[in-house]
Predict the structure.
Amino acid sequence: MKTFIAAAVLAAAFAVSAGTETPVAKVGCESVSVSAGFTNAVVKLRNDGATDAVEAVQIYVSTPNSGKGAPSVLPCGLARVAVPAGKSVEASVAIDADAFAEAGEDGAAKPVAGRCTVWAATVAPSGDGRGLGVRSCSTVVDAKPRLLFFRSERCRRCIRLEKELFSTQKWFDFAEGRITLERVDMGGIDEHPLAARYGVDRKGTFVLTSAGGGCAAARLEACEDPSVVLPWLRGAIVSGD
């Protein structure tokens, strides 16, 4: 038995002296992109090592006011991804619905309209965001809050809003590249899923959410006056332009 142990020790010592190394995985992020609905990050990973790996891919978002009394980056997605040795793979990682939002002065969440940086990494950053330059990649996106307009063809206030707001140059100048308007038809027999989700039962109601559909930060109930909508929106979003 002693002879066997001694032989094993000598073999290990010889392997080290001869430069033999244990195969390791070397996985890094090559690119990251964000889906049109801001719900998923598509990450391309490359393993330049000699052995297969399973990586914990982390997604982080930096919003316009990140680092101003708040962390520079916030975690908003995580997935385990298998990356074979010598191969590249693509993986879709879900992004938290509230990722593209910031806390306002009152502490309430406000959707961000403007440039945000999305990071994908296989190494967690430090608290101030440093460290994401290693084994990571990033992309800049223009986050657009979703404005849900609950309407029907026969709704008097909805017809007025379409004519006196959505058909005006003031609306186009404000909304272009900043807001995604989504009309939700409430004229059917069955309740619309979005009306059920946000508890809307009156036509002419607006609900503002973050780009990913979370953070129902503000609502304007059964709006009768088109002139109040733009001032309401300006106060409800964080501009990153």
User: Anything to note?
Assistant: The mean pLDDT is 81. The helical segments are 2-17, 156-166, 169-175, 193-198, 229-236. The domain at 27-143 is CATH 2.60.40.10 (Immunoglobulin-like). The two ends are 73 Å apart (CA to CA).
